[in-house]
């Protein structure tokens, strides 16, 4: 039984004039689904509904459906070709759909968004979503550049989804970025204050990933040379913008560092230096009270092993020049201290073990900070081996980025030289520096 608004089965309203029953018989079945899908795809891409669409390996049912639609048997063969102009003409001439093929497909499946139009609308929506963040970043070039890269990369969409869902998170990100750098605040405390959630900036959370990316850009740590996605790298990046993770467990060992008596940490350092004692500084202290080289201490010596610091304190006491220990791979506290010293003009001079692990540590540090070798060249290695202070070298060889001759010399000799074995040479240098 037909409804009152459709006495002859034709649609009323936007699809007025469409004979729905006949349209569904001709194009609405499973055997013509492929044809409707092709037409929708062309509409979405903004292409004209002209030319032939072809279906490989058509079934008997699909061939029969096209024959019923066009009123003639398709050409023989395994593939099935349909001219879209012919379908459009049939629909108009028969008055099944007087407005043609495009209108018929939308009657069957609903409106089709033209992709160019949809893309433009989506771009406008992302403009709105990014506006708060772009406004905060605009005054600072490093952040403005980062924000541009973030949008171009599509990372926000991958992490946050469509614009509607991304908007509140990017607004929170704008609030975070707007308060960087912080003044030595715990990361969780900062997140609770700014985001209303102490865990909002945790590793693995979308907002945390985006905010950490901003922190790296702000601190100049987003280059390939400085990239470190591990826990220490994240801790270093947060600390570089004044936010602290594991602020008391991340430490650095040093001796001879001058103290700025204008800060609590500086006064403690001054007392330790005057007493000739090494100091262990926490990440919290380094961020809140940055250590600055005073008294013309333009050179800071670096070593890999704590035994060098202990021996220097024993031998030189209060006269020991600034000496910092990386304790193997340098952690966030070490890097924060060294970056602070470099910003104030200090020159870093590094020594490590002459073994493959030591070379890897030195290479990694060199990619992050510019240092000069301290008794750490091929010539120094040969001298130490000749003095009979070496052991057997094992492991996978690696080139030394600062000295092309060092790795071949080590491979040729097959000997390792640990820092403890050349303490007298290192301490002699420090003594001369103290004088």
TrEMBL record:
Residues 280-430 form the DUF2399 domain. It comes from the Bacteria. Residues 1-20 are annotated as: Disordered. This is TIGR02679 family protein. InterPro entries: CHP02679 (IPR013495), CHP02679_N (IPR024466), DUF2399 (IPR024465). Residues 49-258 form the Conserved hypothetical protein CHP02679 N terminus domain. It comes from Streptomonospora wellingtoniae.
């Amino acid at each position: 039984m037909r409804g009152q608004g459709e006495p002859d089965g034709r649609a009323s309203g936007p699809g007025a004039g469409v004979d729905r029953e006949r349209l569904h018989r001709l194009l609405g079945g499973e055997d013509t689904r492929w044809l409707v899908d092709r037409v929708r795809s062309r509409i979405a891409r903004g292409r004209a509904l002209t030319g032939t669409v072809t279906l490989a390996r058509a079934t008997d049912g699909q061939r029969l459906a096209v024959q019923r639609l066009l009123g003639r048997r398709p050409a023989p063969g395994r593939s099935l070709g349909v001219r879209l102009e012919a379908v459009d003409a049939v629909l108009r001439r028969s008055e099944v759909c007087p407005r043609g093929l495009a209108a018929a497909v939308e009657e069957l499946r609903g409106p089709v968004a033209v992709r160019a139009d949809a893309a433009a609308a989506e771009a406008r929506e992302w403009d709105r979503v990014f506006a708060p963040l772009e406004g905060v970043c605009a005054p600072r070039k490093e952040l403005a550049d980062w924000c541009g890269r973030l949008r171009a990369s599509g990372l926000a969409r991958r992490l946050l989804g469509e614009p509607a869902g991304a908007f509140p998170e990017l607004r929170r990100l704008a609030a975070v970025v707007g308060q960087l750098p912080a003044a030595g605040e715990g990361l969780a405390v900062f997140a609770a204050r700014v985001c209303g959630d102490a865990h909002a900036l945790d590793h693995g959370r979308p907002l945390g990933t985006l905010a950490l990316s901003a922190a790296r850009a702000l601190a100049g740590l987003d280059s390939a040379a400085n990239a470190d996605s591990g826990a220490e790298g994240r801790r270093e990046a947060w600390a570089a913008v004044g936010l602290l993770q594991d602020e008391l467990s991340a430490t650095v060992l040093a001796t001879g560092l001058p103290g700025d008596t204008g800060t609590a940490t500086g006064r403690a350092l001054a007392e330790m230096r005057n007493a000739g004692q090494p100091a262990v500084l926490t990440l919290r202290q380094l961020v809140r009270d940055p250590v600055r080289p005073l008294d013309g201490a333009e050179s800071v010596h670096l070593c890999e092993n704590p035994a060098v610091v202990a021996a220097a304190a024993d031998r030189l006491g209060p006269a020991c020049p600034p000496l910092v220990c990386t304790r193997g791979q340098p952690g966030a506290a070490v890097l924060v201290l060294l970056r602070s010293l470099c910003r104030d003009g200090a020159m870093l001079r590094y020594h490590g073990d002459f073994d493959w692990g030591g070379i890897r540590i030195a290479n990694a540090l060199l990619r992050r900070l510019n240092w000069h070798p301290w008794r750490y060249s091929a010539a120094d290695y040969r001298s130490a081996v000749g003095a009979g202070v070496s052991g057997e070298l094992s492991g996978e060889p690696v080139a030394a980025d600062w000295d092309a001759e060092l790795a071949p010399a080590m491979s040729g000799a097959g000997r390792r030289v640990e820092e403890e074995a050349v303490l007298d040479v290192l301490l002699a240098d420090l003594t001369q520096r103290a004088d």
